[in-house]
Design a protein that fits this description.
With 132 residues, the protein is mostly helical. The protein has one domain. It contains 4 helices and no strands. Helix 1 packs antiparallel against helix 3 and helix 2 packs antiparallel against helix 3.
Length: 132
């Protein structure tokens, strides 16, 4: 395999293309626009209509289980009041997804290709030569 699972994890944590390792997941003119394909290696980043669901689920999970639910538990146990809990939940629900947007795409691609490394073009080239 050309791209190892370790390299896939490293690229995912750095929000880089899982195939070539360059920072090409997002368009250079926007912080929130994902490239359809990597400009360097042509890996399809947005793979179909539901491509955003993976990053969305990761972002939602981190926001809910890392911010909102702990604040609700602190409020329910009486450790913080409603005047702190409500703004904290609103701020967490608005800010955390914005801050994690780019990271969630890197994590999603990392998870996907960690379990399916043979789907990376760099790893497929070696298989195609072996099949001949």
């Amino acid at each position: 395999m050309t791209v190892s699972r370790f390299k896939i994890i490293e690229n995912g944590l750095k929000c880089r293309c899982p195939n070539c390792g360059l920072p090409t997941l997002f368009r250079s003119d926007s912080r929130f626009k994902v490239n359809e394909t990597c400009p360097n290696c042509d890996l399809r980043i947005e793979n179909g209509d539901g491509a955003f669901l993976g990053p969305f689920a990761i972002n939602y999970g981190v926001t809910a289980f890392g911010v909102i639910i702990p604040v609700i538990v602190l409020y329910a146990t009486g450790r913080i009041g409603a005047r702190v809990a409500l703004p904290a939940c609103f701020a967490g629900a608005l800010l955390v997804p914005l801050l994690l947007y780019r990271v969630s795409w890197g994590w999603w691609l990392m998870l996907y290709y960690f379990f399916l490394p043979a789907n990376l073009p760099a790893n497929r080239m070696g298989r195609e030569e072996d099949d001949r």
